[in-house]
Amino acid sequence: MNFFKNIYLFLSFRAIVIIFLAVVSTYLCRRYEFTADFPLSLIGTAIVFPIVFSISGAYKRRESALREYGVIKAHSRAIFFAARDWLEESDDQIQIEIKRLLSELLSACRELFSVPVGQMNEKEKDVYRVFSKLSTYVKGFRKKGLSSGEVSRCNQFLSKIIIAFENIKHIYQYRTPRTLRTYSKVFICILPILYGPYFAKISEEFARELAYIMPVLFTLVLVSLDSIQDHLENPFDQIGEDDVRINAEKFVSRLDL
To answer: pTM of this prediction?
Structure first.
C-alpha cells in the first residue's frame, strides 16, 4: 500500500501536465519533421546536478533534525529519571506530573513544526510556556530533598533540550535556497517541451508505438527527482514517508521501561 502511495506522490498534476506537453511537442516535431540532435549534457548541467545538490542538502537537514530530536528525547528521559530516582521521597504524583509536562512539551513542538512558517509565532510561545513550567518544576526539586548540585544538573538537561529545540526550529524555518529551487522547477517545466525535436529525431529508430516512451520517461525522471526534493525539504509536514514524526504519546508511555 505504501508503495502505491509513494507512486501517487510522484504522479502529481504538474507531472501529468508536463508529460502531456512533452508528448505534444514530440508529436508536432515528428509530424512536421522538425528534428535536432540536442546534447543531453545540458540536462545534467541545468537540472540533474542542481536537484541532486538540493536533495543532498535537504537530506542533511533531515538527519540534523533527527539528531536534535534524539537529544530532546534523551535529556527529557534524564529529567524523568531524576524525578523518579534522585528524590529522597518520590511518589506516583511526581512521576505523573513530569510525564504530563514532557508530553505537553513534545505535543507543543509537534504542533509548532506542523504549521506553516508564517504561523509559528503563537505556537512558539506555547512551547516556551511549557519550558517555563518545566523550569519551575525542576526548581521545586530542592524542596523535595534534591541537592543544589543535582538540581543544577537537571537544569543543564533542560538547557540542552532548549538548545536542541532551537536547532530544530532553524531547520524548520530556513530551507534550501529558494532561487535554486525556482531555477530547477523552471527548467523541469520547459526542457521536456524544448527537447521535442530531439525526441522526434531519436524516435525515428523506434517503432511507432514506442515513439513517445522517451519524452514520458524523461519527464518522469526529472519530476520525480524534484518531488523527492520537495518531500525532503520540510521534514515535519507529515506528507512523505521520510518525515520526522514526533510521537509524544509513545515516548511518554515508554518512560517507565
So the answer is: 0.82
**Contact of 87 with 193, CB cutoff 8 Å:** no
Check if the beta carbon of residue 251 is closer than 8 Å to that of residue 104. no
For residue 52, pLDDT beyond 80: yes
198: nearest Cα among 22, 15, 20, 16: 22
Asked whether residue 196 is domain-assigned, the answer is no
Q: How far apart are CA 171 and CA 175, in angstroms?
A: 7
Binned at pLDDT 50, 70 and 90, residue 5 comes out as: low
Q: Is residue 230 part of a domain?
A: no
Q: CB–CB of 227/12 below 8 Å?
A: yes
DSSP state of 84: I
Asked if residue 157 is part of any domain, the answer here is: yes
Q: Over the stretch 119-151, which tens digit does the pLDDT of each residue have? A: 888 899 999 999 999 999 999 898 888 888 999
Helix (H) or strand (E) holding 18: helix 13-31
Residue 117: how many CA atoms within 13 Å on its side-chain side?
A: 9
Domain count, the chain: 1
Task: Flag whether 50 is in a domain.
Answer: no
Q: Return the SS3 of 216.
A: helix
Instruction: Look up the domain containing 159 and give its range.
Output: 71-175+244-253
Query: In this predicted structure, what is the pLDDT of residue 180?
Result: 79
